[in-house]
C-alpha cells in the first residue's frame, strides 16, 4: 500500500469515525453508530501506522497492501452495514457486518504474521 493511499484512508476513516460518533447521540439506534465510529477511529490510527511501515519498508509491499485492503473492505462492510441499519432501516446485504468483521480479523492476523516473517 502506498503511503499516500494509507494517509488518505486514515483521513477518511478518522473523519467518518468522528461524524458517526457524534451522530450516535442524536439517532435512535445510535449505539450501532457509536460502534462503527469507534472502529473507524481505531483504524484511522492503524492506517497511519501502515503508511509509515509501507514508506519505511518497501519490500513488504504486497503483504502490507493486502492488510490495508482487508481493513478498508472490512470497515466498509462492517461499519457500512451498521450505518445502513440506522439511516436506511435495512442492511447492506445479509451477512455484510459479519463478513466485514471477518475481513478485519484476518487482516489484523495477517499483520501479526507479516511481523514474524524473516527480514530480507
Helix content: over 70%
How can the largest sheet be summarized?
A: none
Q: Structural class given helices, strands, pairing?
A: mainly alpha
What best-fitting shape do the alpha-carbon axes yield? elongated
Low-confidence stretches: none
How is the secondary structure organized here?
Elements: H1 3-23, H2 30-56, H3 61-87, H4 96-116
Pick out its properties.
120 residues; 4 helices
Please describe what this structure looks like.
This protein is an all-alpha fold. The protein is 80% helix and 0% strand. The two termini are 18 Å apart.
In short:
This protein has 120 residues and is mainly α.
